Amino acid sequence: MSLLKCEVITAAADRKSLSINGSCVCGAIEFEAELIPGMVFNCHCSRCRKSHGAAFATQAFARRETLRFIRGKEHLREYDSTGGIRAFCSHCGSRLMNFAKDGGDYLSIALACVDSAHDAKPVADVCVNSKVDWQPLSDTIPSYPELPDDIAE
Ligand SMILES: [Zn+2]
Ligand SMILES: [Zn+2]
Questions:
Q1: Measured in angstroms, how far is the CA atom of residue 4 from the centroid of ligand 2?
Q2: Which ligand minimizes its atom distance to the CA of 87?
Q3: What are phi and psi of 4, to 5 degrees?
Q4: Ligand 1: distance of its center to the CA of 145 in Å?
Q5: pLDDT tier at 6 (50, 70, 90 boundaries)?
Q6: Is the pLDDT score of 11 beyond 80?
Q7: Rounded to the nearest whole angstrom, what is the distance from the C-alpha of residue 128 to the centroid of ligand 1?
């Protein structure tokens, strides 16, 4: 399973969207986007863990064309990681979003950086083959050793 698939999933185009606003911890960057319902995953891969400094990263998918920076886009920096671009605030280091290297139609947004109220919530734990031992899995959502192919449709 490629990291690209883990981070930038091609999603069904006809699902209803959810408007959100997000920001980094220092507030320099603020953005808005439309989330794709049902496309929220807790990713336990080592790259998500390390780049977020957390047991896992909760990533919500959005169409890239819906991403708009309200302020601070000039503070956004990109780290060219294996399989994708990881974007963060150059001031405070907050991890905000991931893109495909080739552009792509979708991006994933760190759900923890979203400030507005929303109904999005994780539907699965993925890449749990890479999970740390000290973090128990939820017993309310399914878990997958890698990223299941049917999620990527
Ligand atoms: Zn910041
Ligand atoms: Zn990951």
A1: 9
A2: 1
A3: -55, -45
A4: 33
A5: low
A6: no
A7: 29
**Rounded distance from Cα 138 to ligand 2 centre (Å):** 17
Query: At 58, which amino acid appears?
Result: T
Answer CATH for 3-141 from 2.60.40.10, 2.170.150.70, 1.10.10.10, 2.140.10.30: 2.170.150.70
Say if residue 12's pLDDT is above 70: no
Could you give the CA distance from residue 133 to residue 148 in angstroms, rounded to a whole number? Answer: 21
The burial of 80, by beta-carbon neighbours within 10 Å (0-12 exposed, 13-18 middle, 19 or more buried), is given as exposed
- pLDDT for 100-140, tens place per residue? 888 789 999 999 999 999 999 999 999 999 999 999 999 99
CA of residue 19 to ligand 2 center, whole Å = 23
Cα 100 → chain centroid: 12
DSSP output for 118-137: ------EEE-GGG--TTSPP
